[in-house]
Amino acid sequence: MTEDRGPAKKPPMRDVLAEAAFALFMERGFERTTVDDIVASAGVGRRSFFRYFPSKEDAVFPDHERCLADMTAFLEAAGEGDPVEAVCDAARLVLRMYAEKPEFSVQRYGLTREVPGLRTYELSVVRRYERTMAGYLERRWAGAPDAALRAEVIAASVVAAHNNGLRSWLRSGGRGDAGAEVDRALELVRAVWGSAAERPPAPAAEDEVIVMIAPKGAPMWRVVQRVEAALDEERGTTER
Amino acid sequence: MTEDRGPAKKPPMRDVLAEAAFALFMERGFERTTVDDIVASAGVGRRSFFRYFPSKEDAVFPDHERCLADMTAFLEAAGEGDPVEAVCDAARLVLRMYAEKPEFSVQRYGLTREVPGLRTYELSVVRRYERTMAGYLERRWAGAPDAALRAEVIAASVVAAHNNGLRSWLRSGGRGDAGAEVDRALELVRAVWGSAAERPPAPAAEDEVIVMIAPKGAPMWRVVQRVEAALDEERGTTER
């Protein structure tokens, strides 16, 4: 999609349209606002709208296409590190998009909860992020047993964790640290799945072992956190 | 929703309509089939259709509402066992619905992949299953730290694993054992999260410990599987 950013002083037409559309959606409601209303408010022709947005729904979420493209590029450029860390970082790109415009994001969250068509639209977008992440993980694990299964389960976990953190922040009215909420949520996924990925084989010989002692009643995710912590500690002292 | 099952010999009107609709969708395509075509084929009036189905999309998935109700009832009746096991079993209710009608399920899978509106519809339904499971988990863990976060991440994992197994089966043309595919997929989730839930505190005193030895390079999910296996073994010998 090409974007006519126009001369330096004028805001891009695409932004003008998205802003005009959103103002009307908030004022009159999404259903009661027509594309004709939007183009009249923005002072352009009807065809201009469809040049930038395939549908009215797309104008509510003007940044997702860019963010999806950014995520794809980010993952294509990701190095040889832990792939689960990479998809967690990829999810943070989505958060950043929301956090850049707190007021808009919070208002849109309210609008989306009221309009079933927008919720459905959002589900489709979320699904595209999830598939982008799963595709990356599967490529990284190509040939490994259950690569597709693990990729899909982990991508779904990352998306769910991200959305939990994002929603907390949106519900708080966009106050507080969105990044901290999402980091905390993603940490749960990383603790469980982070090394499920492919711990770089170099540092430890195959027959080196970890010995872990934990209370029998401990929940499994705590056990995992302890193993992880122990491994990190070991690495810190012996390999750095 | 009340269902007029009619006299014993005649198939229920709802089924007649769904079958007529599906036959037309396969023959002419989803978009090109109107509700008028469907009611003409079924030999009933237009209002009968909307009495049973809010939209054309709903007629493609006639069993999800019942399955969602079954899942809710199943989880309400679930006992004090591992909540993660309970949601895995709840997911199997969805599988059973697909596996009951292999030919229909496989044909519909093809149709759904061709019609974006049906894919979106399906995403919404899947989301409702996910929320049903997450709601149950959150209630079971009420008051525990991160209850909502864990509930959402695990419900998303269960759904992703279930769908991976279901899709394998659908892609194979509905041949083979759908249950086995899904069991294998859910096992990955159960191994990692099953005890993350709330291992019943009774059997082991707080200060009893498990000692686990694993290769340092082992992926975390293998470590978890071993811890799980060790715990199960212990329980088998000491508590049963």
Summarize it.
Chain A has 240 residues and is mainly α. Chain A has helices at residues 13-28, 35-42, 46-52, 56-60, 64-77, 83-100, 102-114, 116-140, 147-171, 178-193, 220-238; one strand at 209-215. Chain A is built from 11 helices and 1 strand; from the N terminus they run ααααααααααβα.
How would you summarize the topology of this molecule?
Two copies of one chain form a homodimer.
Chain A: H1 13-28, H2 35-42, H3 46-52, H4 56-60, H5 64-77, H6 83-100, H7 102-114, H8 116-140, H9 147-171, H10 178-193, E1 209-215, H11 220-238
Helix pairs in contact in A: 1-2, 5-6, 5-8, 6-8, 6-9, 6-10, 7-8, 8-9, 9-10
Description:
2 copies of one chain form a homodimer. Chain A has helices spanning 13-28, 35-42, 46-52, 56-60, 64-77, 83-100, 102-114, 116-140, 147-171, 178-193, 220-238; one strand at 209-215. Chain A has 240 residues and is an all-alpha fold. Chain A folds into 3 domains: 13-59, Homeodomain-like (Arc Repressor Mutant, subunit A, Orthogonal Bundle); 63-193, Orthogonal Bundle (Tetracycline Repressor, domain 2); 207-240. In chain A, α6 packs antiparallel against α8 (116-140) and α8 crosses α9. The longest helix of chain A is centred in the middle third of the chain and has 25 residues, at 116-140. Chain A is elongated, with a radius of gyration of 22 Å. At the A-B interface, α8, α9, α10, β1 and α11 of A face α8, α9, α10, β1 and α11 of B. β1 (209-215) of chain A pairs antiparallel with β1 of chain B, so a sheet runs across the interface.
